[in-house]
Write a structure and sequence with these properties.
Elements (H helix, E strand, L loop, with lengths): L1 H16 L1 E7 L2 H11 L4 E8 L9 E2 L7 H10 L4 E4 L3 H4 L2 H7 L3 E2 L8 H4 L1 H11 L6 E4 L2 H11 L3 E5 L8 E4 L2 H12 L11 E5 L4 E10 L2 E10 L2 E3 L3 E4 L4 E4 L6 H21 L5 E11 L2 E8 L6 H8 L4 H9 L14 E8 L16 H5 L4 E5 L2 E3 L5 E3 L3 E9 L2 H13 L18
Parallel strand pairs: 1-2, 1-4, 2-3, 4-5
Antiparallel strand pairs: 6-9, 7-8, 7-9, 10-11, 10-15, 11-14, 12-13, 14-17, 15-16, 17-21, 18-21, 19-20
Length: 440
């Protein structure tokens, strides 16, 4: 009898801990997050808004745009959602977490005020200067002539950034003054980045290895998640224009656990203290892009969510349960359960549409995803895809797939990932052939 009562009590406790989750977004990062959340024993229902054909295999896609905050809140109320997990930055900058708080719905992301860390490059600079965080010297400009004058005074190489959100494409690392001048005119006069480029931040060019650092943050405290290395340029050998990311490696070479903790102390925790001091405390995932220079790590930018395609590489190695950690963040706490990863290396290779990072050519039928997924250690995460009227998976965006693989070594992961890439075809597919080479 006592055993029966104990079993009932244990079952009740488990039910109280189970969760109905709404994941917001439609990219490869969201597919990777959905796959990670789906492994949690605490999950009872997973909805993805709007999702993609890959996430549809893991939960229920909901036809609500990621930035349609009112509709997301309405759906969450109707479905008794216990936790909203934001994938991209745009809904956070639009105030998703604030709307959740008003509706008494848990959200694992920062407030609109705190999301300015990603929504405004100039705000990030302000925080860095106030908190003494190592970063490149730079200034914000709303006048084209003032920006051009600054470029000519500082010389090249120099970096021109759209001040607002530009989906990872609003950064030009100019090697000449003329190239920087063109970037300023394109953003500020020609409107190449829309409203995001009406003001620009121009800063000195940092030299070194660029890495991505991830941490769970709440108030003034941060807990290390891990690190990865993105490959931003479209072409092999880091050539061509910047993109949202063409591939990633985890863990990155030369940036071990001790170095990651040191970077948290230098670049993240001082920011958290400054944000708390301003009465806009940060709660959520911080992705700090940083440069490992000969003077030590320096901040490039803050992002207020998991990276893409870094998340695909990083989460593939995760062995602990992500869901309770995200729920704790939503409750303003840090989960005390250790975050654990496999000892394997992982690589994510982005397959992009023809003409990306310009206007992508869409509609091509994709074949071979199932063949790639059948290969040892390989997992394909979908991003810019949709189903056509015949039920075929077709290209619908710029970055189409992230072909990922685990391996005992970086070399093995690289070989497996490229075997997966070669199994997939569509007209106009493009990808880099050197993802992982730096780590080797």
């Amino acid at each position: 009898m006592l055993q029966t009562l104990a079993l009932k009590e244990q079952t009740l406790q488990m039910r109280e801990k189970t969760m109905r989750v709404l994941l917001v977004g439609s990219g490869g990062r969201e597919h990777a997050l959905a796959a990670t959340l789906a492994r949690s024993p605490l999950l009872t229902a997973l909805f993805i808004a709007p999702g993609n054909p890959g996430t549809a295999e893991l939960g229920v896609n909901v036809p609500i745009g990621a930035e349609n905050v009112p509709a997301l809140i309405t759906f969450a109320k109707e479905q008794a959602i216990d936790l909203i997990v934001p994938g991209p930055e745009a809904p956070l900058v639009a105030g998703l977490a604030d709307a959740c708080a008003k509706a008494n719905i848990a959200c694992a992301g920062p407030t609109q005020a705190a999301a300015r860390l990603e929504g405004s490059k100039s705000f990030t600079k302000e925080i860095c200067y106030a908190a003494g965080i190592p970063t490149a010297q730079g200034e914000r400009f709303t006048s084209v002539e003032s920006a051009l004058t600054y470029v000519r005074e500082r010389g090249a190489p120099i970096v021109v950034k759209a001040d607002g959100l530009a989906a990872g494409k609003g950064v030009v690392v100019a090697q000449t003054v003329a190239e920087a001048e063109d970037a300023v005119r394109e953003m500020m006069t020609q409107g190449s980045m829309g409203d995001a480029g009406k003001s620009v931040v121009i800063e000195d060019c940092l030299v070194g290895e660029e890495v991505s650092l991830f941490a769970f943050c709440s108030g003034e405290s941060a807990v290390l998640i891990g690190a990865a290395q993105d490959h931003k340029r479209i072409g092999d050998g880091d050539t061509g224009p910047n993109t949202g990311g063409m591939g990633a490696v985890s863990p990155p070479r030369g940036f071990d656990h001790a170095a990651q903790e040191n970077a948290l102390d230098l670049l993240v925790r001082p920011m958290l203290r400054e944000m708390a001091h301003r009465a806009t405390p940060f709660r959520g995932v911080i992705f700090a892009g940083l440069m490992l220079t000969d003077k030590g790590p320096q901040l490039i930018e803050y992002n207020v969510r998991f990276g893409d395609p870094e998340a695909q590489a990083l989460l593939l190695r995760l062995t602990s349960d992500l869901l309770p950690a995200l729920k704790a963040l939503a409750d303003g706490k840090l989960d005390t359960t250790p975050i654990t990863f496999s000892d394997s290396a992982s690589i994510s290779i982005v397959m992009a549409a023809q003409n990306y990072p310009g206007k992508p050519l869409t509609g091509a039928v994709i074949s071979g995803i199932e063949d790639a997924n059948a290969l040892e250690g390989v997992k394909v995460f979908q991003a810019g895809t949709q189903k056509n009227i015949s039920g075929e998976t077709v290209v619908s965006g710029g970055r189409v797939l992230a072909v990922c693989a685990l391996g005992k070594t970086v070399k093995e992961a690289q070989e497996r990932a490229y075997a997966g890439v070669k199994a997939i075809t569509w007209d106009g597919a493009q990808y880099r052939t050197d993802i992982g080479n730096r780590a080797l």
